[in-house]
Amino acid sequence: xxxxxxxxxxxxxxxxxxxxxxxxxxxxxxxxxxxxxxxxxxxxxxxxxxxxxxxxxxxxxxxxxxxxxxxxxxxxxxxxxxxxxxxxxxxxxxxxxxxxxxxxxxxxxxxxxxxxxxxxxxxxxxxxxxxxxxxxxxxxxxxxxxxxxxxxxxxxxxxxxxxxxxxxxxxxxxxxxxxxxxxxxxxxxxxxxxxxxxxxxxxxxxx
Length: 207
Prior knowledge:
- Helix content is about 35%, strand content about 15%.
- By secondary structure, the chain is an alpha/beta fold.
């Protein structure tokens, strides 16, 4: 934790920590509002000029740069989505997810207590149970690509059934593939995302 933060985890999902006496609440998310996305306007020229400067200088340096990189690792999803995937390949990926940084580097940085791990491992539906077993007790989430990934062209009932099977198998997240044509047919138009992630619990999808 940062500064004088003290852990205050609660069984009912209340305050997770306190910094200088102020409680920190977990981020439970908000309903998706695509109007916010569609109303965004970007100055392309300004963005391109700013992006070109990023490769020439480091805005974050020294120990703060290391901290940012460690945070980036903890937000990553490791993925194996090859047509020739095997249980052993998924298990190797899960081992890397548990220990994404070499032991000698961890020791050199003195970050053993941080227990840096990635956020999730993403696999085909077939390997959800394999990943769950390999990641048991680690706190790392398992994501599954469902709905006929990557094309998403299988019949709707089959895609929905695959989502249900992935959730029943224990997947914490589902990557849903929706084609542009399907968006138009559904009347979604520009408001329809071509690829979106939805969270789910073992008992069924979250709303």
